[in-house]
Amino acid sequence: MILAAAFLALPAAAADRPAPEPWRVSLRVSAAPGVAERDRAAFERRLVVGLTEPLCGIELARDGTEAEAELEVTLERWRERRRPGGAAVFDPNTGRDRPGEIWEVEVRYRYALTRRGERKPVLRRSRKSLVRSASTSNPLWDPHRQARRRALDESAEEIARATCKARRKVKPGKARGEEGRPRN
């Protein structure tokens, strides 16, 4: 009985907590010469969605608003490979099973978070996301689409998580030179 009352009180305690103060970050996404524009655009769209989820109150700076930090993301490589494998899929046009396939999507990217008014980044990382998806006996399952989506989700979540974690180092408001000695 006491345990049930404790569980019922949990949502109220979470609702009483104030939302984190919005933190304005400007986002710039670029791509290496070998990366297709549609892949860069899909990466940027998913990154915008991942950053604006209410994890730590990140707000993307729009035109005319001043950002407290700048996140620069470079998509270095986007590679998709198709191999035979996975479960055979029934083809209704021929009435037979067609061989299955495995899709691999590799995304390499680097990102740097820089505080306003500074040159040295607070956070700089290079990462790679490699996702495989195989066909199943379900003819509606598209392994290519699933591999692309999971690779985009994985990279956007990594960047958003690291940016939220770095927020503790970057206090919103003044640049480091204006507030005095930096905290470590």
Question: What can you tell me about this protein's structure?
Answer:
The protein is of the alpha/beta class. Helices cover 32% and strands 33% of the residues. It is built from 4 helices and 7 strands, in the order H-E-H-E-E-E-E-E-E-H-H. The strands form 2 sheets. A 5-stranded mixed sheet has the order 2-1-3-6-7, covered by helices on one side. Helix 2 links the parallel strand 1 and strand 2. Helix 2 (37-52) crosses helix 3 (143-166). The longest helix is centred in the C-terminal third of the chain and has 24 residues, at 143-166. The protein is elongated.
User: How many angstroms does the end-to-end distance come to?
Assistant: 46 Å
Provide the CATH architecture.
3-Layer(aba) Sandwich
Give the C-level CATH assignment.
Answer: Alpha Beta
The structural domain count equals 1
Beta fraction: 25-35%
- At the fourth level of CATH, the homologous superfamily is ABC-type transport auxiliary lipoprotein component
Instruction: Output mean pLDDT.
Output: 83
Uncertain stretches? 172-176
Helical proportion, percent range: 25-40%
Radius of gyration: 22 Å
* Strand segment count: 7
